[in-house]
Amino acid sequence: MRQEGMENIIRRIQSGNQALREELIYYYRSNILEIAAGVCGRKLEWENDDELSISLLAFNEAIDTYNPSYGKEFHNYARLVIKSRLIDHFRKEARHKHLPLEELNEDNIVVQKWEVESAWKKYNEEQLALERAEEMALFQKMLQSFGISFCQLEISCPKHQDTREILIEIAELIASRKDFIEYVNRNKQLPLKELSLVSGISKKVIKRGRQYIIAVFLIISNMEFKHLRSFFSLPCKNYSNTESAKKQVSGWKGGVRDE
């Protein structure tokens, strides 16, 4: 199934089309079996293995919770949910029996331990990828509200380190002051005159770096952008904190700084 068609099918099921849900489950039955067997590291049978029942419930959960804005195709999202629920099952079984994971099956000690550790590692990696995709989708949406695309941002990114540092300081200044934050969010523009007066940096430099300044401002003023903050090597500060804001503003020195 094409992804566009799949998204429409999921929406219809989430709206209450149970017949279509059954059709989709039947269509994915072999995929569910393949995913579950891969996590468990052994052949599974629908009639005999609880892991497949758990996987089927997980697939239903994936149908109910899937959102295209996650930036992940449904098949990959369903795989992630199934793996996660199977890992939860392994851990609950271990706690219930008061046994370490490697003792779940005396005849299969090494494999059983490897199953869980490998699946858990893959889950963490996929969860990280999902978080990054969600961040990028939200970031793209915010940028678009300012009329900025990823392509434009890449082109406008300063090539010189000292220029980047200046523009990052401007973004930090905006994020540290409520009046600047409100102005930028309301007008989708920078208060060039006021920023120049407060920072001592010329309006020409600020205007030329508008897209980069706005991008950095969005990242540092939204704490959910932890991966983007790391990617841009930006500081992790709480700019909503009053004392932090005062210190940030007081850190500016007079004088005009041009490129």
UniProtKB/TrEMBL annotation:
Gene3D superfamilies: 1.10.1740.10. A motif (Polymerase core binding) lies at residues 50-63. One of its GO terms (molecular function) is sigma factor activity. Negatively regulated by the anti-sigma-I factor RsgI. One of its GO terms (cellular component) is cytoplasm. SUPFAM superfamilies: Sigma2 domain of RNA polymerase sigma factors (SSF88946). It is found in: Cytoplasm. One of its GO terms (biological process) is DNA-templated transcription initiation. It comes from the Bacteria. It holds the Pfam family Sigma70_r2. The keyword Transcription regulation applies. Residues 192-211 bind DNA. InterPro entries: RNA_pol_sigma-I, RNA_pol_sigma70_r2, RNA_pol_sigma_r2. Transmembrane segments: none annotated. Sigma factors are initiation factors that promote the attachment of RNA polymerase to specific initiation sites and are then released. Interacts with RsgI. Belongs to the sigma-70 factor family. SigI subfamily. This is RNA polymerase sigma factor SigI. The lineage of its organism: Bacteria, Bacillati, Bacillota, Clostridia, Eubacteriales.
